[in-house]
Amino acid sequence: MLVVALCGAFMTSCSENERLVFHEKPCVYFNSVTETDSIPYSFAAVIQDTATVNVPVEIIGEAVNEDRAVAFQADPASTAKAGTHYDLPAAEVKVPAGKVVAQIPVKVYNKDLEAGDVALLLRLVPNSNFDLGYAGRQVARIVITNKLVKPSYWNILSIYYGAYSKAKHRLCIQIQGFDFGPKLDYKMIQTYMSYGRLVYNYLLKTPVWDEETKQWITADWSPL
To answer: Residue 21's pLDDT band (boundaries 50, 70, 90)?
Structure first.
């Protein structure tokens, strides 16, 4: 009888905990960047003067059968100016029904960047749908520049492209038709391997002068 009573009490406690977890308000956070990171966007190697940076957010909680709004705002500490360097959509984006992820589309502009880079600090805001999630993942920093930005994961790219230089970076964009993303996408590894060989073969025949280092960039590495 004692065992039965203890089991009953345990089951009741578990049921209450499950109800607490189930009814706990879901939270939202930036899933691909921390507050010490940044999402760079460079206009240095593109023709257009307008682009869209999609900043992903994720839900801590279960998917539901209706759309839910995620609220956000530009932090006053931002050095980027609304309407000049960027535009935000309405103050909310929708997490679609059945999903736990969404994108905040930030439109960025190649304007007034001569004095240097500017940063937009995008801050999540609690609302009736969501509380804030993990500490340190409630602000996303978008850096807008017209200079080339060395990818933070070049130590991995160097396996395919060799040592970094801005001249080589420009050549990569010219051959590939796209710049490297702010974060390493492991699905792109095979693509980088293929383009790394193309860059290598190009430099075998046509070394590129690097005005910054005053050196010729050559095929001085062994691509995979």
So the answer is: very low
